[in-house]
C-alpha cells in the first residue's frame, strides 16, 4: 500500500484517455456504421444498403513521460523503470482509451435518408499537469527516495466509464449540379458506470530522508485536494450498478461533396441497372465538420470530498494506511463534502478533407480539437491531433496508412486494412516497430456484416435487370419481362400486335395480308374504292358521270353540263349566233351563212384590200429577201394581211409571185416562186394556219402592164393574194 498511496497522493501516476478511436479507418467510404461516431452526416448517400456491426473495439495508450521500444516490453526480464527513456517535465501526461462497439447497424430508409442505431461502451480518463520530476523521484517509493522538494501544481484528473445507446439520422440537404450537402444528427442515451476524479490546488511536497531509519522519513505537503467517486468505495469496494446514473448526449455533423462530374450521375439518364449510381463514390473533394459528445451524465450518488493537505507525515503512517480514502481521512482535514455530480462528455470538434486523387486512391487530412477546459473539475476531453492518411479503398478491400501528430505523444505512423467483413489497424504500429522511444500505442479491430449497394446485373442490356428478366441472355421489353415478343408468321409484326398471327401480312394491315373486297383485281391497300369495283386506271373506283348524260367524265368535254355522246357530252351550241350549230359550223366562232357552212364569204372589198396590202411588200432587187429600207412598212403590211385572213378560217388563199421580163426567164421564174414562199412563211410565223395557204411563182408570164416602160415593169414586179375557195 505504501507505494500506491504515495503515488496517488502525489499525483505521480496518471492515465488519461483520448477519445480518438479507429484511427485511419473511420474516413473510409466503407467504414459504415463506425463512421457515424465521428460525423453522423457521413452515412447519408452511403455505399451500403445496410451495415451490421457484430463487434468492434478500439484502444489507445500514450504519454509524454516514458518512451519505450514497445515489443521489448513483453520480453522476459524487461525492467520498465530502468530501460524506458524518461522525459520528466513539470507537466507530464499519459493517455489510455477503450471504446467497444456492440451490435449496431445502419441502413438506407429512402434514397436520401439513412438511419443508424448503435450500442457502445466507453472508458475515458484524464489527468493533466502532473509533475514528471516528482514521479521519477518516487517511482520506487519513499523508502528508496532521497531528499526532494517539488511543486505538484494544479493536477486535474477525471475518469469515466459509461454505455451509450445512440440513434442517428442523416439526409441529403442540398443537391445542385456539382454541389452536394448532407447533414446528420445523433441522439444518445447515456448510462453511467464508474466515475472518479481528482483535482489539486497549489499542492507542494517535500521529503526529508532518514538514513538511520527509513520508516521515519517525513513528507511535508501543503495545498488542497478534491476527490470524487461515483459511489462510496470506502464503504463498499464492490461496484454496484446504479440505474439512476444517466444522461443524454448529441452529435452534429455536415458533409459537403464537390462533384465536378455530376453529369455522369444524372438520375434522369440512369438505367435500371445503374441503381441510381448508389454504388459509386461520386466526389472529387469531400469536406466534413462535426461536433461530437455534447452532453453529460448525472451521478446522483456520487461522493465529493475536499482535503487540506497541510502537514507532515512519516513513511510509517503511509505504510499503515489501508486504502487511499483511509489515508486522507486519517492524516488530513476534510473541509467540505457533497453528494451528486455531473460529468461531461469529451466534447470535440472534428474536421476532415478527403481528396479522390485517382480512381480508388484517396488522401485524407483530418483533425480533432478538444472543447473541454483543462482545469474543469471532473472534466475530461480528447488530445488535439492532426492526421494525414493516404488510402486505397474498394468495396471489399481497403488499405490505409495514417500519419498523425498527437498532442503529448508526438508523431505516429500506422497502417490498417479492411477485408470483407473484417478490419484491423493501428495508428502507431509502424512507429512501434522501429522506434526505441515510442510514447503511444493504439489498435482497432472488428467484424461486421456489410451489405453493399451495387449496380444491378443486366447481361442482355435490355434495361431489365437479371433478377427480374425471364430471358437473361436475350434482349426483350420490360412489358414482356425482358423476353422478345414472338412473331409466329415471321412477318415483322409481333404476335401481340398481329391480327393474323399465323398468316404473314404487312405492318400497315396489322400483320394480315391485303384483300380484294370488290374483286376488281386491285388489293384494298391500293384500291381507292375497296368496296366498289372499278378499273385499274381509276385506282379501283368506277368512272363518274357528273352531268348524268351517259358520257363518263373522262370522255366528257362538258362534264358538268349534259350533252350528246356525239358531241363529246356537250349540248349543241351556236357560239357565233349564225343559226348553224357549232358541231356543223366550220367557223363556230365567226358569223357566216349556211351556204358557206357557217363561215363568212370573201368579198370583193376584202380581196381588194388584200391586193393593196400585198402590193406594198418590197424585196431587195434581184433577191427573195425583204428590203431593209422598207422592212418596217413591209412588216406592218404582213400584220394587216394576217388580221384579214384569220377572219376566214374556212377559206384557202394562194400567195402568187410575179416579175418583169428583164433578165433570164428561168431566173425570173425561180425568183417569183421564192418571193411567194417567203411571204407565205412570214404569214405562218405570225399565226396564219398553214392549211389556208399555198404559194406559187409565175415569173414574167402574167404582166398587168407593158414591160416596155419603166413604170409598167414596176407594176409587173408584184406579190398577189388570190382567193381559191373554201376548204
TrEMBL record:
Recorded GO MF terms: calcium ion binding
Q: Per the record, GO CC terms? A: cell outer membrane
- Kindly report the protein's main subcellular placement as a broad class: membrane
Q: Where in the cell is it found?
A: Cell outer membrane
Secretion signal span: 1-19
Give the source's domain of life in one word: Bacteria
Spell out the InterPro entries in the cross-references: Bact_OuterMem_StrucFunc, DUF5723, OMP_bac, OmpA-like, OMPA-like_CS, OmpA-like_sf, Thrombospondin_3-like_rpt, TSP_type-3_rpt
| GO terms (BP aspect) | cell adhesion
Give the record's keywords alphabetically: Cell outer membrane, Membrane, Signal
List, for all copies, the residue spans of the domain called OmpA-like.
606-727
Q: What is this protein called?
A: OmpA family protein
Amino acid at each position: 500500500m505504501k507505494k500506491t498511496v504515495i503515488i496517488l497522493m502525489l499525483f505521480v501516476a496518471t492515465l488519461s484517455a483520448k477519445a480518438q478511436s479507429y484511427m485511419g479507418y473511420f474516413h473510409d467510404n466503407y467504414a459504415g456504421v463506425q463512421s457515424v461516431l465521428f460525423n453522423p452526416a457521413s452515412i447519408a448517400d452511403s455505399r451500403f444498403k445496410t451495415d451490421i456491426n457484430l463487434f468492434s473495439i478500439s484502444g489507445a495508450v500514450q504519454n509524454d513521460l516514458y518512451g519505450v521500444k514497445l515489443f521489448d516490453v513483453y520480453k522476459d526480464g524487461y525492467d520498465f523503470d530502468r530501460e524506458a527513456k524518461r522525459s520528466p517535465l513539470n507537466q507530464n501526461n499519459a493517455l489510455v482509451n477503450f471504446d467497444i462497439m456492440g451490435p449496431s447497424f445502419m441502413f438506407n430508409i429512402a434514397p436520401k435518408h439513412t438511419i443508424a442505431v448503435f450500442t457502445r461502451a466507453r472508458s475515458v480518463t484524464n489527468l493533466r499537469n502532473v509533475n514528471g520530476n516528482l514521479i521519477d523521484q518516487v517511482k520506487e517509493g519513499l523508502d528508496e527516495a532521497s531528499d526532494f522538494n517539488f511543486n505538484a501544481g494544479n493536477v486535474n484528473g477525471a475518469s469515466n466509464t459509461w454505455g451509450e445507446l445512440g440513434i442517428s439520422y442523416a439526409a441529403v440537404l442540398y443537391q445542385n449540379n456539382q454541389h452536394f450537402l448532407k447533414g446528420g444528427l445523433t441522439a444518445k442515451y447515456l448510462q453511467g458506470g464508474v466515475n472518479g476524479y481528482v483535482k489539486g490546488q497549489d499542492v507542494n511536497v517535500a521529503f526529508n530522508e532518514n538514513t538511520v531509519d527509513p520508516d521515519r522519513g517525513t513528507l511535508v505537503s501543503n495545498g488542497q485536494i478534491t476527490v470524487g467517486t461515483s459511489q462510496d468505495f470506502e464503504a463498499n469496494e464492490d461496484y454496484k450498478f446504479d440505474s439512476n446514473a444517466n444522461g443524454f448526449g448529441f452529435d452534429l455533423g455536415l458533409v459537403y461533396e464537390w462533384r465536378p462530374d455530376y453529369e455522369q450521375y444524372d438520375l434522369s439518364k440512369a438505367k435500371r441497372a445503374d441503381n441510381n449510381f448508389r454504388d459509386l463514390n461520386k466526389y472529387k473533394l469531400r469536406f466534413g465538420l462535426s461536433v461530437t459528445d455534447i452532453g453529460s451524465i448525472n451521478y446522483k450518488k456520487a461522493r465529493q470530498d475536499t482535503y487540506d493537505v497541510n502537514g507532515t507525515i512519516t513513511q510509517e503512517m503511509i505504510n499503515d494506511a489501508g486504502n487511499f480514502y483511509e489515508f486522507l481521512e486519517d492524516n488530513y482535514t476534510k473541509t467540505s463534502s457533497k453528494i451528486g455530480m455531473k460529468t461531461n462528455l469529451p466534447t470535440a470538434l472534428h474536421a476532415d478533407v478527403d481528396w479522390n486523387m485517382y480512381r480508388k486512391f484517396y488522401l485524407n487530412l483530418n483533425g480533432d480539437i478538444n472543447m473541454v477546459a483543462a482545469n474543469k473539475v471532473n472534466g475530461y476531453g480528447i488530445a488535439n491531433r492532426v492526421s494525414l492518411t493516404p488510402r486505397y479503398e474498394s468495396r471489399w478491400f481497403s488499405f490505409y496508412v495514417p500519419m498523425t501528430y498527437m498532442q503529448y505523444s508526438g508523431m505516429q505512423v500506422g497502417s490498417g486494412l479492411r477485408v470483407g467483413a473484417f478490419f484491423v489497424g493501428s495508428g502507431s504500429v509502424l512507429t512501434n516497430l522501429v522506434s526505441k522511444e515510442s510514447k503511444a500505442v493504439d489498435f482497432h479491430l472488428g467484424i461486421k456484416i456489410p451489405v453493399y449497394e451495387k449496380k444491378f446485373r443486366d447481361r442482355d442490356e435490355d434495361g431489365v435487370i437479371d433478377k427480374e428478366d425471364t430471358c437473361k441472355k436475350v434482349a426483350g421489353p420490360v412489358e414482356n419481362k425482358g423476353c422478345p415478343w414472338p412473331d409466329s408468321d415471321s412477318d415483322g409484326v409481333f404476335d401481340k400486335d398481329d391480327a393474323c398471327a399465323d398468316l404473314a401480312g404487312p405492318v400497315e394491315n396489322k400483320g394480315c395480308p391485303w384483300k380484294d373486297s370488290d374483286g376488281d383485281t386491285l388489293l384494298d391497300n391500293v384500291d381507292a374504292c375497296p368496296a366498289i369495283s372499278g378499273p385499274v386506271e381509276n385506282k379501283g373506283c368506277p368512272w363518274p358521270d357528273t352531268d348524268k348524260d351517259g358520257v363518263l367524265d373522262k370522255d366528257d368535254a362538258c362534264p358538268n353540263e349534259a350533252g350528246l355522246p356525239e358531241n363529246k357530252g356537250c349540248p349543241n351550241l351556236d357560239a357565233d349566233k349564225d343559226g348553224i350549230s357549232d358541231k356543223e359550223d366550220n367557223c363556230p366562232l365567226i358569223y357566216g351563212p349556211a351556204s358557206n357552212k357557217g363561215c363568212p364569204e370573201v368579198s370583193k372589198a376584202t380581196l381588194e384590200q388584200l391586193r393593196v396590202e400585198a402590193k406594198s411588200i418590197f424585196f431587195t432587187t434581184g433577191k427573195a429577201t425583204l428590203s431593209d429600207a422598207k422592212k418596217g412598212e413591209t412588216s406592218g403590211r404582213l400584220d394587216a394581211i394576217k388580221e384579214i385572213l384569220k377572219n376566214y378560217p374556212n377559206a384557202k388563199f394562194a400567195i402568187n409571185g410575179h416579175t418583169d421580163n428583164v433578165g433570164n426567164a428561168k431566173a425570173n421564174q425561180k425568183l417569183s416562186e421564192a418571193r411567194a414562199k417567203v411571204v407565205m412563211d412570214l404569214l405562218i410565223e405570225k399565226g396564219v394556219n398553214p392549211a389556208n395557204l399555198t404559194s406559187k411563182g409565175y415569173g414574167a408570164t402574167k404582166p398587168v402592164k407593158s414591160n416596155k416602160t419603166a413604170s409598167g415593169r414596176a407594176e409587173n414586179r408584184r406579190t398577189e393574194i388570190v382567193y381559191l375557195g373554201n376548204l
